Amino acid sequence: MMGERMGAQEALFYEFSLERHVPAGHLVRAIDRFVDLAGIRAYLKPFYSETGRPSIDPELMIRMLLIGYCFGIRSERRLCEEVHLNLAYRWFCRLGLDGRVPDHSTFSKNRHGRFRDSDLLRHLFEAVLQRCIAEGLVGGEGFAVDASLIKAEASRQKGVDGKAGLSPEVASRAVEEYLAVLDDAAFGAATEVTPKFLSPADPAARWTGAHGGQAFFAYSTNYLIDVDNAIIVDVEATTAIRQAEVLAAKRMIERSMDRFDLYPARLMGDSAYGSAEMLAWLVHEHGIEPHVPVFDKSARRDGTFSRTDFAYDHVRDLYTCPGGKELRRYRRRFSVTRDSVDPHGLMRYRAAKSDCGACALKAQCCPADPPRKVLRSIHEGARDMARDIAVTDAYVTSRRQRKKVEMLFAHLKRILRLDRLRLRGPNGARDEFHLAATAQNLRKLAKLLPGGPQISPA
What CA dihedral angle connects 15, 24, 90 and 78, to 10 degrees? Predict the structure, then answer.
């Protein structure tokens, strides 16, 4: 028999527990155990006025931002709607059933003001990282580093010629931030090469075609992770260029040493971090094993002998060619010591012209040059160490562990939906990257440390 239609009947009293209506296995319960914002009010107190109307609770705004980045809610307007309607989000934000959700414009006002002035989002990231360390999830033995391009909030169709520069009439917060980082080695000073196009909306974003398709404006998010559990140890925003990414790796390693006393035994990375200077920095300045492929362009493709065909004698500081002749830096003694290192840190070893002219292997060695010369970096010792590591079983393991960084970037773009920035300028990129890394570490904590109090059914 068909049931009767029930009309709306307003009850006089309700007995409703928000605590019991949030499922015990919901992600918000899992990450809530690791979100400790008890000291945030004291941390922000110097940035609030002693007079005036009470502001929105900063803890509420931080909890809402964590919801947005943990669940891939990219719009702050939509985030406010979701928190208003979703019981689990209300529970996480401590709003109860009748708590008022702040307007979306509140986030912008605080983000551009006291949040950035206090470096709050960096403080939040480090607080979560400290919890990961306390829980024993960070071993500190092996670190991996990598960078990934994130599209900027800038239209590729509206770019202007990079050589012409920006029009004097262009003025915005992003332009001011661009001018402020022109001398920063992670942005404007990373390279002297003028970009092909500049974005008037976000000039600090770099025009790049690194993905092989259509070029676009982008920033780089740089991750330093502990490979034991893929915990993000540090994050840095830079312009989308290799030199800046290498600098970011150095900054992140030194910061992890200074702030958390983490001294990795080995660093894993791709060939972008295999330059002679970077390898020497790892080996000689910090004693870190470089599990990194050497960036080397000495191999020849015309069939003639490459530098690897010449044997180096460390004691006598010379090379021996396949024909048995010696290549030296100096062919005679000088009364004044000469520096044979060029501005790029390279030394030149030359054979005698008479040796090369009478050699039967000249056609295979230097058919177009009278004598053969070989270049050697002043950091060749560190390069040799990296080459020796590359033939070990430990390096095979490192190559496999290095992929954990790429998996985090895939999670960042596909699950957290951060494949394109929503905020503009270097500060906007920095804010988004810190919040996303914090969300990823919280989700990792929830996955690796399940548990928590069980909620009795209603």
Answer: -130
How many whole angstroms separate alpha carbon 131 and alpha carbon 442? 10
Q: How far apart are CA 137 and CA 317, in angstroms?
A: 46
Q: Using the 8-state DSSP alphabet, how is residue 282 labeled? A: I
Segments in 329-392 forming alpha helices (H) = 353-357, 362-365, 380-389
Q: Evaluate the CA torsion angle 164, 168, 169, 170 in order and state its sign.
A: positive
Confidence band of 33 (pLDDT split at 50, 70, 90): very high
Question: Which pair of structure tokens corresponds to residue 11?
Answer: 């009850």
pLDDT tens readout for residues 347-404: 889 899 889 988 989 888 998 888 899 888 889 899 999 999 999 999 999 999 999 9
- Asked if residues 306 and 364 have their Cβ atoms less than 8 Å apart, the reply is no
- Cα end-to-end distance, the chain, whole Å: 30
How much is the average pLDDT of 191-204? 91
Q: Which two tokens stand for residue 347?
A: 């030394």
Burial of 184-222, coded b for 16+ CB within 10 Å and e otherwise, reads bbbbbebeeeebebbbbbbbbbbbbeeeeeeebbbbbbb
| Distant-in-sequence, close-in-space partners of 285: CB < 8 Å, separation ≥ 6 | none
This prediction's pTM: 0.89
CB count within 10 Å of CB 347 equals: 16
CB 322 within 8 A of CB 310: yes
Residue 161 makes CB contacts below 8 A (sequence gap 6+) with: 196, 197, 198
> What local confidence, expressed as pLDDT, does residue 331 receive?
74
Among 415, 390, 388, smallest CA distance to 402 is for: 390
Polymer length of the chain: 458
What is the pLDDT confidence band of residue 48, given thresholds at 50, 70 and 90? confident
Q: How many CA atoms lie within 13 A of 186 on its CB side?
A: 21
Which residues on neighbouring strands pair with residue 145, listed in sequence order? 224
Rounded to 5°, angle at Cα 39 from 35 and 40: 80
The encoded tokens of residue 316 equal 């006598």
Structure confidence at residue 1 (pLDDT): 56
Interatomic CA distance for residues 309 and 305, integer angstroms? 6
